[in-house]
Amino acid sequence: DAGVTQSPTHLIKTRGQQVTLRCSPKSGHDTVSWYQQALGQGPQFIFQYYEEEERQRGNFPDRFSGHQFPNYSSELNVNALLLGDSALYLCASSYRGPTYNEQFFGPGTRLTVL
Amino acid sequence: AQRVTQPEKLLSVFKGAPVELKCNYSYSGSPELFWYVQYSRQRLQLLLRHISRESIKGFTADLNKGETSFHLKKPFAQEEDSAMYYCALRAGNQFYFGTGTSLTVIP
Questions:
Q1: Could you tell me which residues come within 8 angstroms of residue B105 by beta carbon, excluding any fewer than 6 positions away?
Q2: Whether the Cβ atoms of residue B94 and residue B38 lie closer than 8 Å to each other
Q3: What are residue B101's phi and psi, to 5 degrees?
Q4: What is the C-alpha separation between A87 and A112, in angstroms, rounded?
Q5: According to the model, what pLDDT value does residue A99 have?
Q6: Taking residues B50-56, what's their average pLDDT?
Q7: Is the CB of residue A93 less than 8 Å away from at least one CB of chain B?
Q8: How far apart are CA A87 and CA B97, in angstroms?
Q9: Which of A59, A100, A109, A110 to mutate to test the interface with B (most CBs of B within 10 A)?
Q10: Cross-chain Cβ contact B86/A43 below 8 Å
Q11: Is the confidence at residue A1, as pLDDT, over 80?
């Protein structure tokens, strides 16, 4: 098991463009959370997907949207990119059981907005 | 509002010395706190969780609700402990992370 995988590793976009980031969860996991980590900051929760629905959302504008597929993989979409969206985007997966289960992080996608 | 504060961005200690990484939180409910670690060129990973009350790699952390703190401690630092450490609070399905402390253990 490769664990959580994310693609692409890096990408560069210009202001106003749209971007899609992808995440495949660890085998056996059904829940995916997305985080934004700006330089020098800790990860900030964007949203979490379970059963193909957004279950909880952090303090991010509607320009940030997501999707979860039947195979539990997920996409993060960001529209109308701003310079401030430049960051490392992390995906984390877990198994949603009756009690808390550890989340495992992917390597991240580094987004640069010029 | 939920908030996690790690007051030290950088911390250097000598090998064999005790180390304490500070974490304070604000949360109106019953907190569930975690320490995550990121070693050089590796992924962010869970170090320990306050509910499990485990000692992982010699590290311990005690939840002090009176002081709203969850400091990470190790009696004798090792070179392999050099890493970035993040304190995090779980509220429902959402995690709140601190800004992290970069620990360097000097040989």
A1: B12, B13, B14, B15, B19, B77, B78, B79, B80, B81, B82
A2: no
A3: -125, 125
A4: 7
A5: 75
A6: 81
A7: no
A8: 16
A9: A100
A10: yes
A11: no
**DSSP one-letter string for B15-36:** TTS-EEE--EEE-SS--EEEEE
Burial class (CB in 10 A: 0-12, 13-18, 19+), B25: buried
By three-state DSSP, how is residue A2 classified? coil
Opening angle at CA A68, ends A9 and A94, nearest 5:
75
- What single letter denotes the amino acid at residue A15? R
Q: What is the pLDDT of residues A48-80, one digit of tens each?
A: 999 999 999 999 999 999 999 999 999 999 999
**Is A6:A106 a contact under the CB 8 Å cutoff?**
yes
Residue type at A107? Answer: P
Do the Cβ atoms of B32 and A105 come within 8 Å?
Answer: no
φ, ψ (nearest 5 deg) of residue A84: -70, -5
